[in-house]
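REQUEST ID: PR-0412
SUBMITTED BY: lab tech R.K.
PRIORITY: routine
TASK: structure prediction, single protein chain
INPUT:
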Amino acid sequence: MKIIEFLEARISDDEARAGRGWACIGESRWELTNYGQDILTPAGILAECAAKRELVEVWSDEHGGHHVLRALATIYKDHPDYDEKWAA
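STATUS: complete
OUTPUT:
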């Protein structure tokens, strides 16, 4: 799997979670707490997804943005499809 395909799939997963209202409890980036921390609303998650999609488009491999895409992919490093070769 290429890094762009990986990122597009993970962003789509995030969008789907936001569409269900909230993220799944217990997943590392999506854990919800009651300790005074800000919790992203579904609209906030979708805004983050839109920003990530724009980064993927602007910094695609064709534009020489390997380092930017690798940095973005590290957000999802716990996903089974993450390739350690992408480590930023």
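NOTES: The two ends are 17 Å apart (CA to CA).
REVIEWED BY: pending
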